[in-house]
Amino acid sequence: MLITPSLALGDDQPMEATDLMKPNQSPALEIRTAGDEVLVHDVRGGKVHVLNASAGKILQLCDGSRTVEEIAVGVANTFLTDTERVRPDVDASLAEFKGLGLLQ
After folding, report:
1. Tens digits of per-residue pLDDT, 92-102?
2. β-strand 37-42 against 47-51: which pairing, if any?
3. Cα separation of 76 and 51, whole Å?
4. Which of these, 19, 28, 76, 88, could form a disulfide with 44 (CB 3.0-4.6 Å)?
5. In a domain, 4, yes or no
């Protein structure tokens, strides 16, 4: 079976495959807020990551129940901005979190 990176929609607008994902935090994370920063202890990896408020919010919303688009909406609502403005940052953060082993 071949999986393509985009799916065709009825209105001829491509949708990225990541739009269908529901990112979920690794169960080995201990997360604490310290002022404007979020401290993420990866117990399995033995590392501590320091995130700014927006990256911390993105990780918080990765609970396996939200799509990437819903995460972007949540971040936009929290910081009173447009979803289109935060979506590239959400995508980049999710890719980085995945690379660091913070997502399942």
Report:
1. 999 999 999 99
2. antiparallel
3. 17
4. 28
5. no
